[in-house]
Amino acid sequence: MEVLARILLVYLSLSGFAVAAQHPVSIPQPIVKTLDSLKEKDNLTDWLYTRIDYSYGSPRQTLPFLMRTERERWRKPQSTPEKEAWLMLLSNQGYNQMYTGNILNSINCYEQAYNYAIDHKLNVEGIADYVLKPWANNYTRLGDYEKALFIQQRTLDYAKREHNDALAVSVYNNMAISYRSLGDFKKAEECILLGTKKAAPGSSALILLDNTLADIYFDKDELELAEQVIARNISRQQKLKPNSETAYWLLSSYITSGDIHRKKQHFTTARNNYQQALVINDQYYKGNRLREKAYIFIQLGKIKLAQKQPTEALTYFNQVLSTFGITDTALRINADRIFGDNRLVDVFYQKSLAYNQMGLQKEALENIRFSLLSADRIRFELADVKTKQRFQAETKQMAEKAIAIAFSLLGKTNQHSYAEIIIAIIEQTRARTLLDDIRSNEQQLTRSTKDPLFQEKAKLEQAIAYNEKELLQGAEDPIEIEKRNAELKFKLEGIEKNIAQRYPSLATGKEMLLAADNLLKQLPRTAHFIEFFSGTDHLYVAEIYNRRVKHIRRISNARQVKQQIFDFVNTYYRRGPAAMMNQPKSFFMASNQIYKTLLGSFNFPKNEPLIIIPDEVIGYLSFDGLVTSNNYQPDIASWPFVIKDLSVAYAFSIQTWLKQSTKKTEHKGFAGLFVTHQHKNKQFIPAVAKEAESIEKIVAGDFRRDEDAGVKDFFNAFDQANVLHISTHSYLSGLQREPTLSFEDEPVFLFELSARKAAPDLVVLSACRTADGMMNSGEGIISLSRGFAAIGTGGTIAGLWNVNDQAASEITAACYQNMLAGQKISIALHHAKLDWLLNKQRPAQEYLPYYWDALIYMGYDKKVNLQAAHNRIIDYGQLAALILVAILGIYYLLKVKKRSISPASVS
Length: 907
Hints:
This is Tetratricopeptide repeat-containing protein. By secondary structure, the chain is α/β, with parallel strands linked by helices. The strands form 4 sheets. A 6-stranded mixed β-sheet has the order 7-6-8-12-15-16, sandwiched between helices. Strands 3-2-1-4-5 form a 5-stranded mixed β-sheet, with helices on both faces. A 3-stranded antiparallel β-sheet has the order 9-10-11, with no helix packed on it. Strand 10 and strand 11 (about 745-750) form a beta hairpin.
């Protein structure tokens, strides 16, 4: 109970501390003497509590002093009271960090507190309230709602075990906030209902729940309902005796009321509500609830923006930055101080809008880039891949705004630096999770796997993949599997943080981003890129050549163009070749229209090798089969396809392309897995057998068929081969359209692919839709091709739609023949497709792109090590010739010897 009492004292004290200066103060001599005396007596418990107690009055001033405790202690805690005191210290560090606005450091402190309590089996009353709850709330502030929900569920389980209804009500409210933030309003309202049922009649906790319910209605745009709920709530609270806790609830109610009226454009009422919230903050918290204060200033600034008063808006926004210590006395921004926080993301974005209203585009661009920087620093703290991808999609709209400003400045000034800024912003939105995976896997494999942390990490990843597989295959209750996986992911994040602390080079840190000019300098001079950015309002196409941005084009009507591409792919490719065959002219004209829209204004040299970096729906296109002219001819083989003018390869981003370019392998062998499903209850693919036969005549290597081509064989081949060829069924599984390869014994899903010590230079996925998958805005298509890139392959040849078996067989065989002749991978595939088109013996419809254009190369282009197969007929002929030569030689020698011996004389 002593520990609980001390925790309560901390939080009550913090709620009313005086305004502190930004710089730490010197420690008073009486405190120093007390600490020295306790140290001499080896009294660690009271030494810790003395430091904690001193931090109560001015946590912002004394935070450095509190954070130095570990460095200044003379030994580790040993007894239970000492360990409880240490837990108190960690909890206070977390709260003080959060209170001063540093969410990331606060999360780390709470995580340390929780792990310390678990590791040392401390059964401390109040840990759920004062560690778990604020820890989860920090993840909510960071935007990692999945992690917040996991911790909140754990806290709720604790509350139910302890029959602590007050805690349960509070947790239900916080869970409602998390679900609301994820846009799951149904679950959010369910949590409010469950919390209401747990709350005692007339309980003040109902105020908390109604505040959140009003926020839910606000997000659903049901403003009248929201206004009714919050007005009733304010009226109820005004009748209560105020204290530090009820004051915070009223402050929150006034903020929500302000938001509702601002959205309804009742600006005077909104401003009055916000001002009431500021008064409460000053009266009860001396203005030191910094995040709430920052939010109010941002909202007041937004009102000024709506009223076309950008100068007044900037005054509010600058107050926010000053509050967080981002600016100096002259309001100059220190970029090094920018940390990951949703408040900072928002305020910099709003500043950008204000400067735009003032016609100051340079300042607008600078601030929106600061906003993206803060968003990036949030993103680096997110662990779960799906959370990262969601966050990436959410920031893309802001990136589009930044690109639009830079594009306007480029047109006005003709300064090349703005073109480079556009490339930097595009790369900031492109395949970032994939880049994280490539870097992380590459760096991790350079470390000793004997470290138990790596072994534990591998076990957790395997368990998560197993559960994901069970979930897709419907083996048991999906809710139980998801709970189990949430627990595993929680443990995995802790292991990964420990690894990052032990091996700092493995952390994908904040300095990972490259400036555009440095990025371009790393490119080969001959590399020629076309990079797309697919926005809500515009599409941007950037041409990069000779380490320089050569041209940037903007395409209007983005929604219309994207829908046009989507309909084109669906009509002519995904549904089979019928539409293309039955309406060749319609296909021809539609294809040419897309070509003109995307590439029509560019002039490329004949046979130029081009690397295309697609975005969103553009990733479903193969450019080889696009038609470059609107002069329709019935003879399909004579159509002016892109492939006849250019040699096209693809990349996920410039940065992933550069990472793949550094890949080195000592392997030289070929491995092929060919699964016809002849002995399984699945569709038999006779063309797979034919494909195996044709490749076996060309390339020497390890060829495995059907029962010898199982999952274990696949992973063994992946570890040992330089080129890995997989010919089988491929499909998209479940609601998430999880890319899946079907082997003889069982399927392999994308999430089962994990980093290995060695990876092929090239993986050929001669299967349907292996370059297809769920679309993620800003991240691209989540495909098998992408999965192989993440675990270290140099590149993949994969299919965008259901490949024609005969075409795949011939084209891949020809591609290997070309690679054996010394051609780079994409050039070899390019010529293999051209060979198909130049063959005059085909039925007319087989010249349509549906047949020959499904396979694309994605990755860094290079030559690969292959050995030619031995031709048995030639080998037998050569052997026979050698035997014949040997026989003739022996015959000749015998004949010559006989002639050289004369008849014997008689004496």
